[in-house]
Write the C-alpha cells for this entry.
Amino acid sequence: MSDVGGLFEPAFLKQLDRLVLLTRRSTVGQMQGERRSPRRGSSIEYADFKPYTAGDDFRQIDWNLYARLEKFFLKLFVAEEEITLHLLIDSSASMDWGEPNKLRYAAQLAGAMGYIALGGLDRARVQAFGGNATRLPAQRGRAGVVPLFRFLSQLQGQGPTNLVDACQRYVQTTRVAGPLLLCTDLLTPDWEEALRTLSRRPFEITLMHILAPDELNPPLEGDLKLLDVEGGDGVDVSADLDLLQRYVERLYAWRQEVETFCNARGINYIFVETTLPLDTLLVSVLRERQLLR
Amino acid sequence: MGLLAPLMLGLGAAVMAGIVTLYILRLRREERTVSSTFLWQQLVRDVEANAPWQRLRNNWLMWLQLLAALLLAPALARPFFKTAGVSGKNLILIIDRSASMGAVDADPTRLERAKSEAIRLIDQLPDGARATVMAIGGELDVPAAATNDRRELRNAINGIQLRLGGGSDMSQALSLAGALAARETDSEVAILSDGQVTVPTSTTIPAKIRFFPLGESANNQAIAAVTLNELAPGALTFFARVRNNGAERVVRRLVVELDGTLFNAYDIELPPGQDQTINVDVPASTQIAHVYLDGTDALPSDDQAWAVRPSNDPIPVRLVTPGNRFLATVLGLMPRVAVTAYLTETAAFTDTPMLTVLDASLPDPLPEGNLLIIAPYRSTAYFSVTGVLDQPVPRPSLTEEPLLRGIELGEVNILRSVHVENAPWAHTVIDSSSGPLLIAGEVDGRRIAILGFDLHDSDLPLNIAFPVLMANLVGYLAPGSGGESAFIAPNQALNISVTSDVEQVRVTLPNGATVELEPRQGSATLDAAQVSQAGIYTVELHGAGGVVNTQRYVVNAYSESEATINPVPVLDIAQAGGGVVGSTETEQAQAGKDEWWRPLALVALIVLLIEWVLAQRGGMTRLRLWWRARRTA
C-alpha cells in the first residue's frame, strides 16, 4: 500500500498491519464481518436455545433436543458482523495550530485508526467539523484506505469550533453505533454539552485530547492583546511569570476536569501532546488503553 | 521641616500625571494570535474591563513608577529639618587644634568632637556650596581651601591633629576668613573651639559668624615647671611647680620618678588658681626626672613632665663687636657659655662656635653657624635693610612667643631701628607699628635672629627684660646652653649644632621611634612637625668611631594659656552689619538646615530597580533557564 496524501510512510503502514482494533462490547453491524454481533446469526459458535414459535425458520430446530424433550427448540448461533469506526475530527481553526500541527496530528491518528479498522474488514467513517464541515461516507475493506487517506490529507482547519452542533448532527444522522474516536483540542466552552450529546448513543467513545506545546507553555511575554484565531474579542493580558504559572495551573485543572467528566460517562480519555510520536501513541498508549491489540 | 525647592513638588505631580497618561495611552497592546482564548478568558476576566482606571488597577509597573515619582518629587524639593548649624554657601571652618582641645571632657576629646561637628556641617552644606578648612593652634594651616569636594573636606578635617605648642591665636585665621568672606557673598564662618583662644579686637568679619563652643569642664591641674638644677658640684636639686587651673580646691598626688625609679610622692593641696612647689635634693647621679600627677582631670596631657640634668659642657659663643659692655656682660654671666670676643674688623675666624653674635658688624661672608645680628647696617643674602624706624614702640608679635617668655616690653624705649625686610624665612618676635624690631627663624640649616636696633639706641640694656631676652635668644640660637637649655617648646624645630667629626645624628623620639639626620653646615635640624610629642628626645651624635656625644632634650606639654581649659561660651568677634558679638550656642541653634533628600532618593532608586527587575523578569527568567541548561549540559 503506497502512501496517499503524504500522511504516512509505507514502513509505518506495515507496522499498522500488525494492529487490530479492539472493542469493549459487541455492536450491531450492517454486513457480515468478523466481529461478534449481539444478533444471532449463522456462525458455528453456539449462542442460545429458543422455543419454536410459528414463523421461525424450522431449519434451525435442534432435533436432538426434540428427541429428548419432545418439544421444539431452535438452536441459535452467534452472528459475526462488521463494526463501524466513527472518526470525528475537529477541523476548526484552533486545530490548525502549533508545531507539530494539531490538525495534521489528528488526521494522522484518524488515518492510522481507520487503516487498522479497514484492514480488519470493518467500516470507517470520517466526519470533520469546523468552519467547513465535510464527511467521508463509510468505507469498507482495503479499498477504502485510499479515499480515507485522501480525505484526511485534504482537511483544512478553518472556522469556529461548533462542537455541540456537530455532535448533535452526527448522533442524529448515524444509524449504526460503534467505536468513536473524537480528535479535538476541546478548546470550547461547551465541551461538556458536546460529550454529553455523544454519550446519548451507545458509541464506544474515545476522546483524543490533542494540544500543542505552545498551548501547554505559552511563549508569551509583556502586555499583549490575545486574539483568538477563531475570532471574537481579544483578551488583554500582562504575561508575566505569575500569569503564566496561573495559566499552567488552570490548564492542568481543566484537563483533570475533562478526565473526571469522561470517566463518569465511560468515555475513554487520552491526552496527547503533539510532540508525542504517533507510533508511540499507537503501539504503547492505545495498546495499553486496550483500544488496539 | 521646610522645603528648599517647593516648586519641585508641582513638577513631581506633573510627572505622576504624565506617567498615568502615558499608561492610559499605552493601553493599545501588542496583538498576538493564539489558538484559543478559552482558558485565558477564565484567567483574566478582571483585566477585561473596559474602563481605563480598572485596567490600570493591577499594573504593578505603573504603580512602582508612580511610587518612585512620589519619592523623587519631595527629594527634588529638598526637604530639611532646622538644626544647629550653618546655612551659608561659602563656609569657612576654623577648627581649634591647640593643646586645650585635647581635654577629654568631650567624648573622646574636644578636638575629635570639633572634627565630627565640622564634618556634620560639611554634610549640611547646600549643593554647590564651598568650604574652607583652617586649623588654628601653632601656625595657621589651611588644609582645604574653597572647595566643594566633600571628600577632600572630610579628609582635611580628619587630618587635623592636636598641637601641643604654639598657642591658639585666631588673628591670622580671622584675617584670612575676613578676606575670603569679602570675596563672596553669603559667607559664613564657623568656629569650633573651646573658646580659649586669642581674639583680636580690631578684626571685623564681613560674614555671619557661628561659634560652636566645645567642652564642659574647667578641672585641670598641670605641672607648670620641673627642673633639675646643679647649684653646686655634687648638689642636685629637683624643683616642680604644680598649678590648679580649675575652679575647685583639689588634692593631687605628685609622683616623682628619677631615672625610671620611684623617688617619692607628695600629696599637694591646690586651691583654685594657686600654685604649689616642691623643691628637694635628689641624688647627684640623677639624669632624668619624670613627674606626674596621679588621678585624672580634664586635660591629662599636662599632668606629666620631664626634666634632664643640664650638661656641664661649655658652649662656645663668638661675639664680634666694636665694643659693647652690655653684651659682653650679659653673655659672660650666662652659665656654661664661653664667650670669645672679636673686633669688628676681624674677617677670618679659626674657631667654629655654635653661635656668633654680630653686633653692628657684618663680615662678608657671614660666619658659619647660628647668628644673632644686632643693628645690621646693610643688606645680606638673607634680608634687606630698607630704612630707619624712628622711635618705634615695641610690642610682642604673638602672645605666646617663646622668645619673649618672661619679658615685659612696656617699659622699653627705642630711639631708632633699621627696617629689616625680605626675610620670608623668619617670623616677627618684636613688632612695632612701622616694622619689625626683632625677627628670628631658620634658613639654610641654621638659626638667625636679627635685632634691628643698636643697644646703645635703647634703654633695653638697662631694663630687666634685657638679660631675659638675651638668655632666651641664646637658648634659641645655642640649644643646650643656659639653665633651661634642654627644654624646647612643642612643635619647635630642634637645631643641633655638630662638630665636623660628626657624620650622622640620630634622634630617638619619646615614642621610641628614631630619626636619622644628616649634618649640614655645622648643624642638624629636627623638623618642628617631628617635635610633636611630650617627653625626652635623645640625640646621639655619631662619628667615625661611634657615638661622639649624647644629648637629651625635653618637650613638656604645659602651656600657661592652654592649661586654662574652662569653656568660653561667647567669643567677642565683631561681625559686619551691626557689630554683633560672637554667637552663643543658643543663638546659633536652628540656623542650619539638615537636608534629608538622600534617603528619599535612595528609596526611589530601589523602587526603580525593583520596577526594572519586574519589567525585565521575562528576560531574567530566560537568562536563568539558559544558565541552568548550561550548567546541566
DSSP finds twelve helices and 34 strands in chain B. The interface with chain A takes residues 26-44, 47-48, 55, 58-59, 614, 617-618, 621 of chain B (CB under 8 Å). The domain at 315-479 of chain B is CATH 3.40.50.880 (Rossmann fold).
